[in-house]
Amino acid sequence: MTHISTRSLPKAELHLHIEGTLEPEMVFALAEKNGIALPWSSVEELRGLYSFTDLQSFLDLYYAGMAVLQTEDDFAELAGAYLRRAAEQGVRHAELFFDPQAHTTRGIAIDTVIDGLLRALATARSENGITGGLILCFLRDQPVADAMATLESVAARSADLLGVGLDSAEVGYPPSLFEAVFSRARELGLHVVAHAGEEGPPEYVWEALDLLKVERIDHGVRSLEDPLLVERLRRDRIPLTVCPLSNVRLGGVASLDDHALPAMLEAGLVVTVNSDDPAYFGGYIDDNYSAVARALDLDAEQLRAVAAFSVEASFLGADAKATLL
Ligand code: HPA
Ligand code: ZN
Known about the structure:
Elements: E1 11-13, H1 24-34, H2 43-48, H3 55-65, H4 72-88, E2 91-98, H5 101-104, H6 110-128, E3 131-139, H7 144-153, E4 163-167, H8 179-187, E5 191-196, H9 202-210, E6 216-219, H10 227-235, E7 240-242, H11 244-249, H12 261-266, E8 271-273, H13 278-281, H14 285-295, H15 300-312, H16 318-324
The chain binds hypoxanthine and zinc ion.
């Protein structure tokens, strides 16, 4: 039985797709404001579709919903709403993923997206003291040339980004495809992370480490299938950004009681808990912390360790980390 409130633990959110914080109410409000026709007749109908069988079934709805995001103000409103909720749940630092290709292919300028998100981060910093930054994710199920063109389109303002990541449909799109893109990102001084081992095999985690030279693995839950990989992750203290409610909702894990989080901690891995796409998966970051605390009977020491790992695994400087530990 755990008795600590995880809400007040200072934590960093390291795996959060900002488009995945788009709640159905905001979908309808922005659709009305922007004059966009939706294929759903009500908030209830849309929310009723949030029962997924796998990653792709979620992604189909995720990409459909974000069509309502049109202006810089829309992106600022989206991120502002998320950052207020995150602050309420004890987040002191948030590294936000965004999917520019899902917007530029709809005719939205990448600067519109970035400027809106940065504005919300600046407001959150002054209003709540929460720090943060942006991680530009490439859509791995789209052509590699589009990823490279996206990166080059922001090269002149790379100082506005913390890093790059890799997301969308995983199986069939191994990290090795993106070796040159990640090499260029590192040359621009950007941090590098990648989704791997969510639905894809341990081999994709090895590729992310050895070819993309990532500093963190997003998800990585399938790493446990490969003892040599677990040893590598442990030895190099490569953080895993685990998203428990997401894993259950997308069917990677049958139920929260079966989640490998305790085994990962037991194996000495730097494991963090995050919310992935909270509007779609039934909870923000502390909902994930409290759900695993309950379902997996984690004690106060384990929960404090996970929160401390999130600060350690962040891209904050040493002084800023020290103030949160
Ligand atoms: N996995 C891969 N791509 C994504 C996800 C995810 O959980 N969420 C948004 N894009
Ligand atoms: Zn994700």
